[in-house]
Amino acid sequence: MSTSTGARQEPTGAGRTGARSPGRMPAAETHRRPYRPTTKRTWFLANREYRAYALREVSSVVVGFFVFNLVVGLVCLHRGLESWQWWVSLQTNPLNLTLTVLAVVMSLVHATTWFQATPKIIRIQRGTRYVADFWVVAQHYLLLAVFAAVVYFWLGGL
Amino acid sequence: MTESSHGHPGAGASAADGVQPVGATAEQPEPRPRRDGAAAGPEAGGTITLQVLRYRPDREDAPYLQDFEVPWRTETSVLDALTWVKDNLEPSLTFRWSCRMAICGSCGFMLNGEPKLGCESFVRDYAPGPLRIEPLANHAVERDLVVDLEPFMASLRAVQPYVISDDRHPVPEPGNRQTPEQMVAYGQYSQCINCMLCYAACPQVGLATDFLGPAAVTLAVRYNKDSRDHGADSRLPILDNEGGIWPCTFVGACSTVCPKGVDPAAAIQQAKGATAQAWAAEFILPHRGEGR
Amino acid sequence: MQTLRTDVAIIGGGGAGLRAAMAAADTDPQLQVLVISKVYPMRSHTVAAEGGSAGVVGEDDSLDRHFADTVSGGDWLCDQDVVRYFVEHAAEEMYQLERWGCPWSRRPNGEINVRRFGGMSQPRTWFAADKTGFHMLHTLFQTSLKYPSISRLDEHQALDLVTSNGRVAGVVVYNQRDGYPVFVEAGAVVMATGGAGRVYAQNTNGSIVTGDGMAMAYRAGAPLRDMEFVQFHPTGLPGSGILITEGCRGEGGVLLNKDGYRYLQDYGLGPETPIGSPQNKYMELGPRDRLSQAFWHEQQAGRTISTPQGEAVHLDLRHLGRKYLEERLPMICHLAEQYVGIDPARDPIPVRPAVHYMNGGIETDVTTATSVPGLFAVGECASSGLHGANRLGSNSLAELVVLGKVAGQQAAALAAEDPVGASSSLRQEAQDIAATYLVMMGRGTEAPARIRRELGEALESGVGIFRTGDDMAATARTVRELKERYTQVQVVDTCPVYNTDWASTIELGAMLDVADVIVHSALRRQESRGSHTRLDGFTSRDDERFLAHTRAHFRASGVPEISYHPVTITTMPPAQRAYGAAGKTADAAAAPRNTEDQGAAQ
Amino acid sequence: MRRWQGRTNEPLMWALFGGGGMLAVFTMPVLIIAFGLLVPFGGFGGADGTYERMHALLTHPLVSLLVFLALGLVLWHCCHRTFHALHDLKLHPPEIVRSAIYGIAMLTPAIGYSLSLAA
Asked: C145 CB near a chain A CB, below 8 Å?
């Protein structure tokens, strides 16, 4: 589905080994007539892996909405008790509630997919082996639990 | 290959086009290797319909699928099935292959929409069929199952996939020491056979035409992580580039399809991290990298 | 016709071709070097080599020992000047690859590790797990990308050499991607096209290993030498022929017949060494020809294992343990799992001999020069004199780079000093050559696939592990017939781009030429030496008559013209070739003499 | 700062994206459940109680700044993905859209903080 052929545009750093870049020689004439398929706009529905990817990307949009909600809440907190009560009662509005429930699900999708991916970025080498993915992931879940506990005890007033 | 229409006979039909599906009746197959009875499950076999994408630039304007009926046994690889078609039914069917042991990287195809090496995919896993065989996605199709590899070859050259030494680190004679620990740091990334399955799996290769792509970036990272190499600075302008590593959105399909467990997705994320660090370092230490 | 001019043209983009290209570019950066390959270089069959590459390192080993192992391994048919040069430069080239980034397996302290290999008296085989060829090839290919003076013609099928007054002046190739023939005019040509194992039905080789370069050089007047010496690798997978590396035995794997008995001790390779302590030149670490022959005897005696894909013996690796197998032989584990459904840590792998390597090839001297001026040859397509009648495992990967470098330097020197000038008559000749091949498209009646299949079977039956005059004569007749049928060969496909129907038919033509030479060379050699072993009264080595290289010259009609020329012997006169306990006494007697003045001590 | 053809500001964008993502995955599930469900439905007592416990800490200008910055970082993460999702949909919006999307991530906490200070 690629639409490019031949040499790619080279960044200025690429050609420093010499004036003439090595590679294949250009043909004087050609019988080539390559067929170039195009990527469909709905490619992300094509298989399970792509759909999971699409869900992961969408999850952050929903989470983003809730961040917006929190910003409003924080402003209300600054404006006084009445304002805060208004924001809290706004959360029970059916439309808002629906969004919240969706946000819970999506934030979990977001978190779990992220945790799953972290071992690819964080690679801890011990001798001739890498620390098993499990431990990297477990560490992340642990941090999530710690934060949950802090918030729980703080809001619970303990 | 969404454009392909099943069964379209093409502009100028070749000799074998007249009969569809063809095969099984033509000639008995060569004896196919089978599993050692002691270790494998029960013998299986039969015939399967291969739906192979055909495109001959001198004849057709668009690809189409042609059916071939092929006998198979437990040990018949998809590549075996294709060579059987070429030898017995349709000599003009064109595909690349060589080692038939998953190391030369020639025979990548889309099998029922998934990028796979033909030589280590077995017909038994697709029975009773039909099995759709198409050229690797995200590539221009030169002919039948042969795709254009020149864009990759240009990317490969661009990432400077060789040891770069610098004046501060003279190469020791007769050679470097490198501990097994230091080898592990890049070992996995040195296993790439350039089979292009990751390019076929990566939607960003299809969407961003100037993306270096999974395998090329992985090879850059392979050398960056090699204790003998001092070329990371030299490769930075290629990686930190609109068409370098940034089109990657970490779909992760490259690693899923890699037949050698190379994990290009990990390599690219690590390249992103290293590039961000280099970027920050240039802010803090403005002279870093200058005059080289 | 499109014409390109280059200083050095290298045909073949495998290990030898790429090393030659870099050596040529290093010799004179002003020269243009052009690598022509019918596949992308990383697909070349060097990629499939598994076990390792020889080079003497460490204090326990010596150049003399490598020399002696090689000469006796080759049953004294080696040119000893070449062997000497080779052993002296092997480790140096291994280190060169190291500096280029090859991931050689290491000891914990970071030094190079070496493993045991068949026929070698010491562990001296450098390895990169069990993908040595893969890593060497990719290292060479990737490093070649940094040379501005090296260009490539990938996926260009070479058709024939063009000569001018007996001197090679270029090569006609076909650009598969664009669909046009191209004439490459060159100051010097290096042939590095690899072997021809595909002439046999059961082989460990990739589909591209069809002897094109051998045939091109042969038709251009360079003799093919020692072609009767075809190496059977003792451990290929039955049916597919996929290679199971000798490194398995180097690491301690053992071969068992159907009774679970280590049969090699009955064939002059004993006494049996304890499982888990392999000993060089004993039992499973004997040379490839002896091990393949032992299999044949076991098969005759009915002591092999019947599998659905033919007779086999067991390669047992179970005692090595899963962890060690995954570290040292990961690809073998994967191949066994994929292709025979076997987990080597739990079950033995069924194996049988399969054609692996052409010990002979285009005749060259130690400078890789052929008898045709302007033409050099290196790698498996060449017969440098290194391997004699039987190549030792791990000597060929080292040969690629040691002699590849020589070839590049020699070709560069010649191209700089004395290039052939362009001429219109040459271009006309090139055009005529291209036309004779292009006209094949869309013609003929004989199915090439059938000819190929019959050829493979004929060679298996006539010039296999053991040979008789009658069988060889029958095979010679079959090859003649097939050559005759080939004149009417059918190419259905007429598409100009990626016409693999046509290309594989041209390859078949090369295979027929090579097969013709193999069988006629074998027919004339009335003795048993190395990998050429006869059953019909010529069962022992005959130094009186046949301590000589076979030389086959092309004749446009009729069979190849066979002649003999002497072997270069410098320090190690012919002696008995023996392994196991018998080998120990023989070695002492046959040690090279006067080594001090050969510069053996490094 | 070295310059070369095709150099992007992606290292910065990506680093912020990564930081925001890290922050988001550790905090957002907890915050959404706590403030979207538990607080409104009395899980921590009435709104008066939560107001009391939170007000003292969160209205401190410095703490408030940090919280808005953190929320901004998470929002940056979300906006970065949104922008790339447009690309995935084969939409290649002009630079102004890109600025607007990342602008949301910067302006939202900035406006929030200004309003808070003004309160």
From this structure: yes
Range of the structural domain that residue A73 is part of: 44-102
Asked if D touches C (at least 3 Cβ pairs < 8 angstroms), the answer reads no
Structurally, how many domains does chain A consist of? 1
| A15 contact D CB<8A | no
Evaluate whether residue A15 is within a structural domain. no
B99 DSSP 8-state letter: -
A51, part of any domain: yes
Percent share of chain C, pLDDT over 90: 92
Taking the domains of chain D in order of start, what are their residue ranges?
A: 60-119
Tens of pLDDT, residue by residue over B116-137, are 999 999 999 999 989 999 999 9
Count of H helices and E strands in chain B?
Answer: 9, 9
Q: How far is B203 from chain C (nearest CA, A)?
A: 25
Second-level CATH architecture of C435-566: Up-down Bundle (1.20)
CATH 2.40.128.20, domain C234-354, yes or no: no
C532 catalytic, yes or no? no
3-state secondary structure of C135: helix
* Rounded Cα gap, residues C537 and C539, in angstroms: 6
Is C233 part of the annotated catalytic residue set? yes
Q: Is residue A108 part of a domain?
A: no
Tokens 């969404």 correspond to: B2
Stretch 17-56 of chain A: residues touching chain B, C-beta under 8 Å = 17, 21-24, 31-40, 43-44, 46-47, 49-50, 53
Strands (E), C38-90: 53-54
| Cβ count within 10 A of residue C206 | 25
* Cβ-defined contact of D29 to A104 (cutoff 8 Å): yes
pLDDT, one tens digit per residue, over C218-251 is 999 999 999 999 999 999 999 899 999 999 999 9
Q: What does the angle CA A108 – CA A109 – CA A111 come to, to the nearest 5 degrees?
A: 60
Task: Confirm or reject contact between D3 and chain B (CB < 8 A).
Answer: no
ipTM: 0.92
